[in-house]
């Protein structure tokens, strides 16, 4: 029970095991940025191309990040980014989709 009283001073914000994880942290940042971009642009009907493509790429990067993730904090952030990307992707698909208005 002594470990419960000892603060975790090793590692950064997402590296709870004290080791650096540059690939996982990069995937986390990319997934969060794409998720927020997809979610925000989904609120505008005329930005459905950006919303759907950013959501699709965010889902793919988040899924790969989940697959190689080694820390719980990283997985938590990836789930937030994945959720935002998925909602933005689905709203973008309902507003016109990946190619709506481009191919007629």
TrEMBL record:
Segments passing through the bilayer: 26-44, 50-69, 76-103
Keywords for the protein's UniProt record, in alphabetical order: Membrane, Transmembrane, Transmembrane helix
Source organism superkingdom: Bacteria
Identification of the protein by name: Integral membrane protein
Species this chain originates from: Streptomyces chlorus
């Amino acid at each position: 029970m002594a470990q419960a009283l000892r603060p975790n001073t090793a590692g950064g914000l997402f590296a709870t095991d004290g080791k650096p994880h540059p690939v996982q942290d990069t995937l986390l940042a990319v997934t969060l940025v794409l998720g927020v971009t997809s979610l925000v642009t989904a609120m505008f009907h005329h930005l459905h191309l950006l919303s759907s493509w950013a959501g699709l790429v965010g889902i793919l990067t988040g899924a790969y990040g989940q697959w190689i993730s080694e820390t719980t904090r990283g997985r938590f952030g990836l789930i937030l980014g994945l959720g935002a990307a998925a909602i933005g992707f689905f709203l973008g698909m309902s507003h016109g989709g990946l190619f709506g208005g481009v191919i007629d």
